[in-house]
Amino acid sequence: MSVTQLPATERRRILEGFYTAYANRDVDGMMQWVTDDIVEDISGIGFVRGAAEERAFLSGLFSSFPDLDTRLVQIVIDDHGASVEWSRRGTFEGTPFQGLRANGRAFQLRGGAFFEFSDGRIRRITGYYDTAAFARDIGLLPKDNSLSEGTLKRLFNLRTIFRRSLKRLRRAG
User: Fold this and answer.
1) Does residue 119 sit in the same domain as residue 168?
2) Could you list the residue range(s) of the whole structural domain that residue 158 is in?
3) From CA 39, how far away is CA 118, in angstroms rounded?
């Protein structure tokens, strides 16, 4: 069934089912709503392709953040697909996530996602959230306006000046 053939009420039902399973950290429940060739493009993380990768990603996410709480804020249905706004919070106290060891830090953020459908299931998810805020909350980046943030900015600016100077020297030499 193509995107335009799937009624808006059905797309809403699918997303509500998907996010109900998400709120319950139910990977099997989530997987029943996606196609075998699901593609998820997540800002700050990259692409997750296929049902096996999606299952592994979701299982890892829930394992890394055992208290993960995802709430559906709103669903917007249009002629081609749907979008959602969600809120999420959790504590990084489980297994490593994306190469980072758990440190017990909590996070809270909002995000959104765009959905495409095929054959009555979710075929593609493109998700966005404030990756810098997430990184700050879990301690990967320094807090806004902190001494550490100021130091990082100064180091970045020094590196930029150094690279530009080096480039000019190479051109002159």
Assistant:
1) no
2) 142-173
3) 12
**Which single residue is written with the structure tokens 């059905």?**
10
Calpha distance 4→95 (Å, rounded): 41
Residues 47 and 65 in one domain: yes
List CB contacts of 153: < 8 A, sequence separation 6 or more: none
State phi, psi for 56 to the nearest 5 degrees: -65, -40
Looking at the structure, tell me whether residues 110 and 84 fall in a common domain. Answer: yes
Average pLDDT of span 142-160: 92
For 39-57, give the DSSP string.
EEEETTTEEEEHHHHHHHH
Both 147 and 68 in a single domain? no
Co-location of 106 and 157 in the same domain: no
**What is d(CA 118, CA 1) in angstroms, rounded to the nearest whole number?**
6
CA pair distance 20, 96, nearest whole angstrom:
25
Do 101 and 39 belong to one domain? Answer: yes
Same-domain check for residues 115 and 163:
no
Q: What is the pLDDT of residues 84-133, one digit of tens each?
A: 999 999 999 999 999 999 999 999 999 999 999 999 999 999 999 999 99
* DSSP code at position 97: B
pTM for the whole structure: 0.85
Average pLDDT over residues 57-70: 98
